[in-house]
Amino acid sequence: MCLLKETVKMCKLLILFVYVLKLVDSRVLTTIETTPKGCEWIMQTVDEEGNVEEPVLVCQIRTIGSADSVLKNLSQSQSDHVTVLKLECSDVLFFESSLEPNKYGSFLSSYRKLVDLRIEFCKIRSIPSNGLWIMRHLKRLSIRSHNSDWSAMTLDLHRDSLRGMGELKSLDLSDNNIWSTPEQVFCPLYSLTHLNLTRNKLQDVAALNFSDWGGGPLDPGKACAAGLEVLDLSYNDIIVLPDNGLSGLRSLKTLFLQDNSISTLGDRAFVGLTALTILNMSSNSLIALPPELLLSSRKLTHLYLQNNSLGVLAPGLLEGLDQLQVLDLSFNDLSSNWVNRDTFSGLVRLVVLNLSFNRLTRIDANLFHDLYTLQILNLEHNSIDFVAEHAFSELKNLHSLTLSNNRISFIEAYHFAGVYAMNQLLIDSNRIKFIHPQAFENLTNLQDLGLNGNLLGAVPAGIGKLRFLKTLDLGKNRIESVTNSSFEGLDILYGLRLVDNQIVNISRDAFSTLPSLQVLNLASNKIKYVEQSAFSSNPTLKAIRLDANELTDISGVFTNLQSLVWLNVSSNSLATFDFGHLPSSLEWLDMHDNRISELSNYYEVHNILKIKMLDVSFNNITVIEENSIPDSVETLFVNNNQIRLVEPGTFVRKANLEKVVLYGNQIEYLDLSALSLRPVSDEKDLPQFYIGGNPFKCDCKMDWLLRINHLSNLRQYPQVLDLDAVTCELVHTRGAPPQPLLDLKPSQFLCQYESHCFAVCHCCDFDACDCEMTCPNNCTCYHDETWTSNIVDCSNAGYREVPQNIPMDATEIYLDGNDLGELGNHVFIGKKKLEVLFLNNSNVKSVHNRTFNGVDSLKVLHMENNNLEKLRGFEFEPLEKLNELYLDHNKISSVNNQTFQKMRSLAVLKLDENKIVDFSPWKLPKKVDTGTFPRVTLNGNKWSCDCSSLASLEAWIRDSGGDPAKMFCADSENSETVADVISRCDNRPNAVATSVVQREVVKNNQLLGGGYVPLLAATLIAVIVVCLLSAVIFVFRQDVRLWMHSKYGIRIFQDVASTHDHSDDSDRLYDCYMIYSHKDEELAGRIIAAELEHLGHTLCLHYRDLHLMGGASYLADAMVSAADASRRVILLVSPALICNEWSKPDFRAALQGALHATRHKLICVLSDDPLEPMDPELRALLRACTVTRWGNADSGKNSDIQCLILSTTKLLKEIKKHPKFDVSLTQGTQQLPLR
Q1: Residue-by-residue DSSP string for 108-148
Q2: Which residues form a coiled coil (predicted)?
C-alpha cells in the first residue's frame, strides 16, 4: 500500500516536472537573450474581431529575402513556437523584395507551424508559383507592400501562388497595386472566410472567379472561395458590376465596394448573395439602381449608398428588406419626386435613415408610415420648405430628428405630433419666424433643442413645456430681450446659448427660472449693462460668455457665483477692473481687448484666487507688479498693452507659473529682478517668457538679456523663447536703427558718465591723474558694465584741436565733424586701449610723423572727407595693428611706397575719390594671419593711361574684383575710363596677345632667349621619346597588362569587344545564360542560380529552361537563341562537364556557335576540383574569357560565390606555366559583371 502511494506521488512529481519544462520551453522565445537582432515581442490582436491578443514576433528587415538570415539563429524548437510573425520593411527606403527561394531554401521554410504571417512595406513584385506552399498550416496571411508609394511597382499573382494553403481563413492583399488576378487564383483556399483586396487597381470583378453561373442554370460553373464571408473590394478602380459576378459566394455576409468608380450595375449583380447582411457602395458614380438589384439579399441589415449621384430610387428597390436597420442615402441628388410613400414601405426594422445633402423639398404625410422602429432621422442640408401635417406621427420610437439647413419658415402645432420618444431636435439654419405655442406639446422627453440661425424675434412661447430640456440653442436669431418668464418651466436646463442676438440688458431676474443652469453663452450681443447679482439665482453656473458686447463695468456681477470656473468678458469696453469682484472658484479668465488701465487688487485677494489662465492682452495696462497677478496663475497673457514698468519681484510668488507673454508693450528698461522666480524644482520645466516687440533701450544694466537663457542652472530665472524677436536701441547709436539683440556684443551695452574714479585710484584729487576719467566739454562719454568699453563722442563739438583731457582708457574716440586742421605730434599719447578713431569730416590737412604715437592698439581709423593732399610715408608708422583705414574723398595726389608697408594686419583700405595718378596696390604687404592682400578701392582717381603702365594695374583689377569703369585717366579730356583704355590697348593691330598683361609677359619673358629654336628642339625630343615608349609598351603589352593587374588590380589594354558600352544590352530578356553539366544540376540550380536570382538577376538555365529533345540542330539553335537573349553567358567548368558534355562534338559545336559573336559576354566559373586533362580547345576558350573560381580554398566547400574575377592575361600565364591546369587562383573582390 505504501509502495503504491509512493508511486502515485512520484508520477505526480514527474507530471509537474514535464509541465514546468513545457512552460519554460514555451516562454523561451520571449526572453531578451533569444530574441533575434532587430526583432521584438509585442502583444497584438490576432483575430478579425479584435478580441484575442497573442505575443507577436515583429522583425524590422531591409527586404523580405533577408528574413531567413535574421531568424536563422533560432533553433528548430524555438522556431516551432513562433506562431505569429510580422515582418516590416522600411517605409522610407525602398528596396525591392522577392519571395523566390534563396540559399536558405523556400521562404520561411523552417517555420512550418506559423498560424499568422504579416508582411508590411516590403516592395514585392510577384508571389511565385507555390511560393508559400511550405506554410500549409497558415490561417491568417497579410501582405501589404504599399506599392502605391512606388507607382511603377505592381504585385503580380501566379495562378498557383496560393496553392497548398487549404487551411487559410483570412487573406489580406490590400494596398499592393494589384491590377488583375489570374484565373482561379483563390480556388485552392477552401477554408477562406475573409478576403481583403482594398486599395489596389482592380477593374474587373468577373476575373476574381467568384461566379458559378457558367453557361447558365443548365451548365453551371464552379466558383472559387465559396465559403467567403467578408469581401473587401473598396478603393479600387471597378467601373462595372456585371450580372452574376459574385453568384458563387453563397456564404458572403459583408461586401465592401465603396470608393470605386462604379457607374453601372447589372440587374443580377448580387444574385446568389443570399446571406449578405452588410453592403457598402458609397463614394461611387451610381446614377440609378436596378429595381431587382437586392432581390436575393433579403437578410440585408446595413446598406450604405451615400456620396453617389443617385437621382432615382426605382420602385420596389427596397421592397422585402424587412431586416434592414441602417440606410444611408446622403450626398446624392434625390428629389421629392422619387422619395415618396412607397420608397421605404416595408422597412419595419429600420433604425437609422440618413437623407441629408439631397434635393428634397417636402415631407409628405405618409413618407415614413412603416418606419415605426426608426430612431435616427437626418434630413439636413436639403431644400425642405413644407412639412405635412402629422408627417412624423408614425415614428413612435424616433429619438433624433435633424432638419437643419433647410428652408422651413413656420413650425405649426401638428408638425411634431406623436413623436413622444424624441430627445433631440435640431432645426438650425432655417428661416423660422414663428413657432406655434403648442408645437412642442408632444415632445415631453426632448432634451436637446437647436434653433440656431433662424429669424426668431423672441424666445418661443412653448419652450416652457419642455420639462426635460437640458440644452437650448437660440443663437444667431433676432431676440432683443429675455425676462424671468422666458424660460419658465425649464428646471433642469444646464446649457443655454443666446450668442449673436440683439440683447441689450440683463436684469437681475432674467434667468431666475433656470436653477440648474451651468453654461450660459451671451457672446456677440449688444449688452451694455448687467445688473449686479444678475446671476444670483443660478448658483450652479460654471461657465459664462459675455465677450463681444458693450459692457463698461462688471463690478458685483459675478461675486456670488461660487461655482463659476470659466469667464470670458473679452472684446468689451471695460475701463476698470478689480480682482475682488471675482469668485474664488474662478480658474479661467479672459479679458483681452478692453480698455483696462490697471489690474486693481484693492482687497488683496491675489493669494486667495485660483485663476490658472489670465488673458488681459490688448488693453491699456501700464504697470504690473506682484499684487496685480494672482499667485495661482499658470498662463499669463499681458501682450499688446502699454506696459512700461515690470516691478522687481513680480513673479516671485507665482509658484505654478508656466508661460508669460509680455510681447508688444512699451517696456524700455527691464531689471533682471523683475523676472526672478522662486527656485524651481528640477522635476518641473522652467517658465517660458516672451518679451519681444518692446522698445528696449539696452544700456549697461540690460546686458543680462544676452545671457538670460544661460542662467537656467540657477533655476531662478525663466527661459526667454523669443530672443530672436528682441531688438535694442543702443545708448550710443549715432543714428543707427534698433539692432537685433542676438547681433550685439556685451561691449555695446553702454551707460553715460561725466566723470569716474576707480576705487584703486589714489590721485583723483589732482587734475593731472591719468586714472581719473572726466568727459571733455561738449562731449558725451559712455562705458559698459565692466568698463571694458569706454567711448568718448566729441562729434560736431566745435573743436579746433584734439581735446587734451580725453580719458586715457578710451577705447573709441569720435572727433568727426570738427575743424582740426593739422594733427600735431603726440595728440593721442597714452591712449593704449584705443581701438576705433573717427577723424572724418574734420578738415584735416596734414598728419605729423608722431601724430599716432602711443596708440598701438588702434584697429579702425576713419579719415575720409578731409583735405589730405599727400601721404609721405611716415604718417601711419606706429599703426602696425590697423585693420581698416578710410582715406577716401580727400585730395591725395601721391602716396609714398612706404606708407602702408608696416601695416601687416590691414584688411580694408579705401582711397576712392582722390587725385591719385600713380599707385601700386599690388605691392601692399599681405596680412600676417591670412596671407591675403587687403581689399583696396580706388574708384574716382586719375591714372596715367598708357598701355605699358596699365599692364600691372589690369592684372590687379582682375584679381581684386575692382571696377575699371569707375577709374579715370588723368591725361584725358573727355573723362576716358581705365576700362576704355584697356579695351583700346587689347585691340591694337600689332597686339600678339589678348590683353595688356599678356603682351607685357611675352615681351619681357627671356626664357626663350629671344627665339623659338630651343622650344622646337625640346618639343621634337619629347615626341620621339613618347613614340619609343609607346612602341616598347605595345610590344610587351601582355607583360605590362599582367604586371598592372597583379600589382595594382587595374585592367588595361582591354579588348574593344569586352569593354565597349553595353547600352544595346538593355533590352535583353535575361541577365545571364548558364551552361553546365547535367551532373552539376544541384550546384548550378540550387546554389549559384539561387544566389544570383536572390540578388535580383534573371537567369536562363541550360537544363531547366531549354527544351533539349530535338537533336543536334535544335540544340545549336536553342543555345544561340539563349545566348543572344542574355547579357552574359556563364560556363560552369567542372570535371563532369569535361568528361560528359565537352566530349560530345555536337555540344562543342553548338557552344562555339553561341559564342561566335558574343565571346565578350562569356564568364567561366571553374570548379575547385582538378580540371585535368584539359584539351587545347577548352584551354583556348579560357584564355579568351573572364574567369572566376567557385568556392573557397580555405573552407573546402562551395558555400558562396567568392567573387574571384581574374583577367584573361593572368589566367593565360597560369595555364602556360601549368599545362595540366592544376593552379591556385588569387581571390579578388569584385562581383560578376552581370549588369
Answers
A1: TTT-TT-SEEEEES-EE-EE-TTTTTT-TT--EEEEE--GG
A2: none
